[in-house]
Write a structure and sequence with these properties.
- By secondary structure, this protein is mainly alpha-helical.
- It is built from 19 helices and no strands.
- The chain is globular.
Length: 438
């Protein structure tokens, strides 16, 4: 895979996706208010962790299995379909358990929607892994783009119909993800070589693939718990309105991750296919580029954050401005970490991936228990920044010790590379727009 073109294509798509996602989030938050937004954020966090657990590490497993090859694409697609159908069935069977537990509360009406959203999101997750593993970046990008725009369109329709409530938003989510997944599945099927889809072929090696994804499952599950545990802890301690304030601040601050997450995913696929010195140098260069991009943006956001957040989301979210400012340094650290960590992800998630994420999760929970009762949501935001910065430092030191990469090579931007990158981007855009015009 050529990292430059793959990144630029993904970046261009991601900019559009980001605009759609931001607008969708603003519409939902402003319409539901802090308390309703808190309920939506807890639902989304529950889906996120459930998708990772239910996927059994097979997003990463599909990336590692494909390793740039298109052969076996239909087998992987069929496995993904069976996997997602089993998860949907299990989730539906468990609906009465959740409904009875929360009967008489707002959660009762969304129990079945949790099962549906979980099923389609698991299928989408598995297909993204196949596309990325096959280095078919265009399909990977367009599926995400379709989901974001469908979701935005449906949310706008709900808003215009004056039917904006949690259940209607979740129905829109399920429909948008389902359409995106159908698009991705059809494209994957049509471009993949034919092959036997008999049960014997389908199950051959499946157990080994599941085993290969176990480390990824543990690592990503712990990481997601790390990212979302503050919302779950704040709910019973401070109430849904505080969760809504924090979720808005987190959602806005996490946009600092978006470009680095693109690089991280592309480099993950590169290292999975080739763990040689060239891949390592690509990671180092990407890390330097992220530092040069993220740190100035973070400095600006810290200065204007308390004004910008209520301006975007409405006066009801004024407390989220301070939370956003406190979160920005930590989110900047995670942005760099996503690129650095692609080296360890591409090597199959070695033990450091698990114990570093676990240590960060324990530290965050302990800090939250200490600071939330006394300082409220700002205490949770500050704890998040401290923990995320420590996680970055841990991974940088580990990469330095394992590969010999100097800290300067990893973290000090080079002006010459910035000029080269700008020149490359201009040429790429010229070629793309030139071809479109022709």
């Amino acid at each position: 895979m050529r990292v430059g073109p793959a990144f630029l294509q993904t970046f261009a798509t991601q900019v559009i996706q980001s605009a759609a996602s931001i607008l969708t989030g603003i519409l939902i938050a402003r319409s539901l208010g802090p308390t309703g937004q808190g309920g939506y954020a807890l639902f989304a966090a529950a889906v996120a962790i459930a998708v990772i657990v239910a996927s059994l590490g097979q997003f990463e497993g599909n990336v590692l299995t494909s390793a740039g090859q298109t052969a076996g694409g239909r087998i992987l697609l069929a496995r993904a379909g069976v996997h997602a159908a089993a998860i949907l069935l299990l989730a539906v069977l468990l609906v009465p358990v959740w409904r009875d537990r929360y009967r008489g509360t707002s959660a009762e009406g969304v129990a079945i929607l949790f099962a549906v959203v979980l099923g389609v999101e698991v299928f989408a997750q598995l297909l993204r892994g196949i596309n990325l593993g096959q280095h078919h970046v265009l399909a990977y990008n367009l599926a995400g783009l379709l989901q974001r725009f469908c979701y935005l369109t449906l949310v706008v329709g709900v808003l215009l119909a004056s039917q904006m409530q949690l259940t209607s938003v979740l129905v829109a989510w399920a429909i948008a993800t389902g359409l995106s997944t159908l698009f991705s599945a059809v494209w994957l099927w049509r471009r993949s070589p034919g092959g036997s889809l008999q049960w014997s072929a389908l199950k051959d090696g499946w157990a080994a693939r599941l085993t290969r994804g176990l480390r990824a499952l543990v690592t990503i599950s712990v990481t997601l718990l790390l990212v979302r545990c503050d919302l779950w802890m704040m709910g019973p301690m401070l109430g849904l309105a505080s969760v809504g304030q924090m979720s808005v601040a987190v959602a806005l601050a996490e946009w600092l991750w978006y470009v680095p997450s693109i690089l991280g995913n592309v480099l993950f696929a590169v290292v999975a296919a080739d763990q040689g010195p060239e891949s390592l140098q690509r990671i180092a260069r990407a890390s330097r580029a992220v530092v040069a991009m993220v740190l100035p943006a973070a400095a600006l956001l810290i200065l204007v954050g308390r004004t910008v957040v209520p301006l975007i989301y409405g006066a009801a979210y004024a407390p989220a401005g301070l939370l956003f400012v406190l979160l920005v340094p930590g989110m900047s650290a995670v942005a760099i970490h996503l690129v650095v960590d692609s080296y360890f992800a591409g090597r199959g998630f070695p033990p450091i991936s698990i114990w570093s994420a676990t240590g960060a999760l324990v530290a965050k929970v302990v800090l939250n228990l200490a600071v939330i009762p006394r300082f409220g949501a700002p205490g949770a935001a500050a704890a998040t920044t401290i923990v995320y910065t420590g996680l970055l430092v841990t991974k940088v030191i580990a990469l330095h010790r394992e590969t010999g990469l100097s800290l300067a090579n990893l973290l000090r931007p080079r002006p010459s590379e910035f000029r080269e990158t700008v020149g490359f981007a201009r040429e790429w855009l010229r070629q793309r727009f030139g071809e479109a015009a022709g």
